[in-house]
């Protein structure tokens, strides 16, 4: 693991020559083009007194995170909702049922074309955006790419089946993302529906619904019969109100690519969610490493529209190639600039493929940004008793400066989903008497997720304690 002096200088927004000077005074004679190891890099970062959050790419790239909208430009925007839950508990049925309400209410008529996501209006006229990406992988993968688009998670739990492994997983994902949950207890039309049991079992997952004197909203529904849906929409609207979701609609647009494909007739088509600003026909844009000009904007009813504001899910035509899900789409001054940025990113992507372990440096800078450092990890063990014992032991290692954060824990083999979650959270996976399954193994390689295997709890805590101390650095 190494980084060149120049690259580090770029990341710190310092001059390469200054770093070389500092290194020289430390007794290391290196040039800007030579590499240094991570320990030396860390030392330098400290020497320069840096608290860097995200260091700029070169000046050429777009730095959206530095471009903050003034408070007075912000206007309320609809919430963006993702539906999660165990397989067969009714996620798809619910999405379809909600879409159905929308069609009748919006009297748009006809069959809606399948686009990634859609908007629904409550009886009060509040808009809600639903992302049509059932499955947890989509949620976590987007997050892994820095695209945290979901404001609220609707957790679907079948009233007859109750809490199942993927329910627990969904809760972990939502919690890891800090996204509030609304529980939709589905299949209430079934004879053996037992919503009370669902509420009780949710307690074990630290999801405490209002009926159990918590603050998580829950609602009984039947996606099949269409009951409880208005109530669900109202609760989402209420949650959104509490969150005071806002964005500046009067600026050049930014959007997140939800999915994208090459359409035979229409060329590259990107389903995007506008995050701020208003996207207009004719805008020059860059999405990931692709650039182009907006040729058409298509709304969730399949209609061509001229512009799209915050939280609107739309299809965009006119990109020169197919971007990746999770890519940021940004409107720029002109096509020339769009091309320039796209090319620069393409070059950089090529470079990074050959560079060594950049994620570790990213983790290092991320750690430097916060005062109370978090130490995220995932825990998998062979039996529930071990899971609990490990969780307790790890939690006890936390102090004021650094906190263990368990993103997810469970019994059994390490799964693909664990790996996705670990990659998103830049966390190692602890396997206690368990190993990854075949598919997870491939993904571990691909994502470069760190694995830590143990069969003695004491060894585990000792090792983690050491690493935590290391993260804090010498002067704490
Ligand atoms: P998903 O895997 O979570 O997307 O679940 P689906 O929406 O595909 O639903 C799984 C099965 O449960 C399907 O056969 C649905 O018809 C059925 N189902 C979904 N919602 C309800 C409901 O409210 N009541 C009943 N009785 N069945 C439902």
From TrEMBL:
Question: What range(s) does the Tr-type G domain occupy?
Answer: 76-246
Tagged with keyword Cell cycle: no
Subcellular location as annotated: Cytoplasm
- Positions binding GTP in this chain are 85-92, 132-136, 186-189
Keywords of the record, alphabetical order, are:
Cytoplasm, GTP-binding, Initiation factor, Nucleotide-binding, Protein biosynthesis
Q: Please tell me where this protein is predominantly located.
A: cytoplasm
Which GO MF term does the entry hold, naming one?
Answer: translation initiation factor activity
The task this protein performs is described as: One of the essential components for the initiation of protein synthesis. Protects formylmethionyl-tRNA from spontaneous hydrolysis and promotes its binding to the 30S ribosomal subunits. Also involved in the hydrolysis of GTP during the formation of the 70S ribosomal complex.
* Family indicated by similarity: Belongs to the TRAFAC class translation factor GTPase superfamily. Classic translation factor GTPase family. IF-2 subfamily.
- What is the designated name of this protein? Translation initiation factor IF-2
Which part of the complete protein is shown? Answer: 283 to 758 of 857
